[in-house]
User: What shape does this take?
Amino acid sequence: MQAMRSDLEQSGYDVICINSNTEFVNKVADIKPDLLIIEEPWGKDSGLETCKQLRLSGAVFPLVVIMNGDTVDDRVACLQAGADDYFVKPYRSETFLRLVRLYLQPTQAGQTESLKFDNLILDLSSRIAYRGGQAISLTMKEYDLLKYLMEHPREVLTREQILENVWGFDFLGESNVIEVYIRYLRLKVEGNGEKKLIHTVRGVGYALRDA
Amino acid sequence: MQAMRSDLEQSGYDVICINSNTEFVNKVADIKPDLLIIEEPWGKDSGLETCKQLRLSGAVFPLVVIMNGDTVDDRVACLQAGADDYFVKPYRSETFLRLVRLYLQPTQAGQTESLKFDNLILDLSSRIAYRGGQAISLTMKEYDLLKYLMEHPREVLTREQILENVWGFDFLGESNVIEVYIRYLRLKVEGNGEKKLIHTVRGVGYALRDA
DNA sequence: TTAAGCATTAAGGTGTGATTAAGTGGCGCA
DNA sequence: TGCGCCACTTAATCACACCTTAATGCTTAA
Assistant: This one.
């Protein structure tokens, strides 16, 4: 806790620590943080319960949970509670700080250094993707494909579009490269029982969606 | 409420918030908003009551209600009160903003990104339809058929026209595909006790109409 | 009342996509 | 120069979602 605090402060962030549970939800609403980190266990209620309440009361900031356990159930519970991301103890500063930086970096246009969709983050400078506190390394084609998908969230991208933009073909071959690479991405991005993000639209192509 | 306001403003919309109930209906008539969002509960009267009054006094803008509950009764009540759409708390910005964008996007010709008819919206880039705050996913043929209907609102489309435009046949088979697909669409689009939109014109074909 | 038109339902076949494994070629390294 | 690894592609088989057909039930208009 203290370690994390000083790490964050050394990186130039304003940090507010709240240890008590009392009136927590209201306080947070006043503070309007850019990012909220909840560390389990949290007071009498679990951190996840607090998390749920925050979302119900309309909280829209990114919300990261730090857990003790690392079972599939833990992870699913976090996401259902409305967390954007989870992190598992022991707390390791470098990876964690990188994630914090990605979450706090201004989202608007201009020089975007990373792409975000749901709790999936693609860091363009390091070409590393993050999901659920986990770094995902990508090969070139995997990166290109994921980047293309993330640049057009929710949009259905046809095979032709994908072939043209990722592979640079302007004709349609008999190949199934796309299917294979979609599979590689799915294994890496949705491999740990995470929510499905890469959706097949039969007869058309693929789309990045949250439902 | 505040969260929503800042989200909308960040997306470039002019937002006016009214907290008091007094003279509300008249005020709104003066303002002539492009979109009205009512959040339950709303003053002494329910938001739905206000909604009803607005419609009775001739309001024609899109009207979205944000509810606490999510029962079938809630939803039906919203629509009967004249709301175009409803949304359920907790309010999560992205989905909501998407809907707002769809409602406010200029309707006229040119680059249409979505088709609208009554409270039914078809998003062309994601191939997803929306009705009553509910996303409706469509198969290819369903999408093609709905798109064709929505491109010709109120117009009666003959079986020949539909077969030609959706299935690409230029002859008339003995098949009842159209009936079957009309049914699929009706189940998805009018399945939740919504108002009927797809009408049969006996001996001719089908038409998208609000009455 | 009756026939034609449409609605509804369920079951089968087809094609598209998923999956798996084997092949190819480039690059670093000994 | 040759070996081996890794990224990428091809190919072959499997699975199932979607589309179609067909058979039955219901409505409407003459």
